[in-house]
């Protein structure tokens, strides 16, 4: 007895580019290349992107999609012509959950911001007249999730994006060309400024707060909105020394639960959510990071990181797990908080005024800078700067059932 195959619709073919940006990678689309139903925000778009990435996957592997089963590799980007004047492109970022069915649109990916510049040039979003034969193009990116400007300085050789080079970025195995990122006015100056909250970089109005965390206790915390809303606590206060690598946290369910409790308490205090239950569908923001004074450690690659070579150690959580390196947006928060005397980040780095820090993370070190000033008694940040790299991994069409 023969079994005739049932008739199912063929897969869709959608033009796409698979790119690494910083220590992340994701699937990049031009808005106009998406099926019509997915060109606007909503369930159809989310369903399509989840299927591209291979989520939700109860096995946690994303085997049947483009995702790499980590928060750093479960990402999609939609690029469109700029919707605001004096910009080249709109950059919309979706953090795709691995094991549950949602796409978080609440924040930016600082790492993938790096790849937006090269993608914009290669896909004709930047006028040819602005692209030198040899030199650098400043691609002006409108980060549509958070309404901020990012300037991506992309090296060009023979009129094409220069991808290869000798710039080394800890957390990325192979060297590439250096791309400098400027995050302009990265703090949430408009602020949601909910009840008892202030607009600006420090939504509680304080550089350090006592944060009551159910089941954990009261912790000193610096809560800042720069790059991405971030809750900083001292490593020592939660039993760590800041040199931890992923297994120390990610293999410890009790530790993950404590860190999530800190995140939820911070989200409530920062006015990002109104009830603890909302945190479940807002995994991407805020971030939780713990800081500690500089100390020697071995990075995940085995490389020795000397205390003398760094100002402080920072470890950050992303999508419920310790990140393998450091998120670009959290790097902006670190740079900004480090530049403001009296924050936990600044104190861990030794205190005082500083316009740049080099911090240790699980994969190595990163140097970040920020320009801050006091205006009318409020701290403001005009820009944060860091170097990363990016390259095209594959281009063509992604197939979607």
UniProtKB/TrEMBL annotation:
Listed InterPro entries: PrpF (IPR012709), PrpF-like (IPR007400)
Source taxon at top rank: Bacteria
Keyword Isomerase among record annotations: yes
UniProtKB keywords: Isomerase
One MF term in the entry's GO annotations: isomerase activity
Cited Pfam families: PrpF (PF04303)
UniProt keyword Isomerase present: yes
Family, as annotated: Belongs to the PrpF family.
Record-linked PANTHER family: ACONITATE ISOMERASE-RELATED (PTHR43709), DUF453 DOMAIN PROTEIN (AFU_ORTHOLOGUE AFUA_6G00360) (PTHR43709:SF2)
Protein name (record): 3-methylitaconate isomerase
Organism: Stenotrophomonas nitritireducens
